[in-house]
Amino acid sequence: MRAVLVEEFGAAPRLADVADPAPAPHGVVVAVQATGVCRSDWHAWQGHDDDVTLPHVPGHELAGTVVAVGADVRGRRVGDRVTTPFVTACGTCPECAAGQQQVCRRQTQPGFTGWGSFAELVALDHADVNLVALPEGFPSAAAAALGCRVATAFRAVTDVARVRAGESVAVHGAGGVGLSAIAIAAAAGARVVAVDPSPGARDLALAFGAEHAVAADGAVDAVRELTGGGAHVSIDAVGLPATCEASVRSLRRRGRHVQIGLLPAATGAPLVPMDLVIAGELQVLGSHGMAAHDYPRLLALVGSGRFPLAGLVTRELPLEAGPRALAEVGAATTAGITVLRP
Known about the structure:
It contains 13 helices and 15 strands. By secondary structure, it is an alpha/beta fold. This is Alcohol dehydrogenase zinc-binding domain protein.
C-alpha cells in the first residue's frame, strides 16, 4: 500500500510503498477513504510523543470501509463503513468497564502507538469496542473529522465543561477542534467569544456561531470586557503555554477552564496562575477524546442541522500532499480542517 512515511523526526516525510497491515484477532483493517490532518499528527512528526517509534505513519482521524476482520471480531464485517475514536480502548480495564473508554489504561492509538491512517489501509484494535458505523450516505470527509477534533470538542463542551444556555464561553484557537467547540457551545445556547491570531480563522469562527472573534494579542482583556467580567467557561483548543494561561485568565470567578490542546514538554511548561485558581475557585479540567458508545449523541446533533459539520472541511487533498499538509499545520497557514483522500 501507499503511505506517508516518517523516517526522521522533523524531516520531510515521503510517500512510500509499504507492507499491507493484517488485522489482530480482535481487530480489523480499514480501507481509508478520508483522513484528517491534525495538530496532534504534527506533534507526532516532530517527535513530541514518546509513543511514536520510527519509521512511522501518522494519522488518527479517519473514515473508511472494513476490508479484513480478525477471527475474534463478532460485530463487524467486511464492507461496513466506519469511523473510530482516536483512542482505541481495550474494553476490559476498570475505566472501560465504567464506560470511560477515552481514558482506557491499555489504550492504543492509530498514528501514535502504531501506524496510522495517512495510508491506503489502517489496522484498528478491538473492533467490537471501538468502531462506529456511519449512517447511510454520510460523507467520508466529514466523518473523518469526527474521530478526534469534533468528538473531543463535543465531550469537552457537553460533558466536561457542562456548558449551559446563556453562559459565556471563550474558545482559544479556531482550528478544527476550536471551531467544533464554538459550534457545539453555540448550539447549546451559549454566547461564544473566539480567539485566534488568524483573520481567516476568526471569520470562520463567526460563521460557526461565535458572537465575537478577537485577536490573540490582548485577548484576556477583550474576553473579560465582552463577557462582563470573564467567561463562565474557557477552552484552550490549541495547546501552547500562552493559550493555556490566557484561557485561565479569561475566566470569571468560579469559572471552568478546559484543556483540550495537547501540551507536550517540548513546547514548554504552561504557567497556570494558581493564585487566581484559588482566589476565584476556578476549575481546571482536562478532556481526552470520546468513547465510541457516545457517538450516537454526536451524530444526532449533526443530523439535527445545528452543527455545520461539512463546513469544517475546507480542503481535500490527495495522499501525496500529506507531507506538505503536515508542515502547514505547524505554520498555522490554513483555516478549518484539511482532509487527505487516499
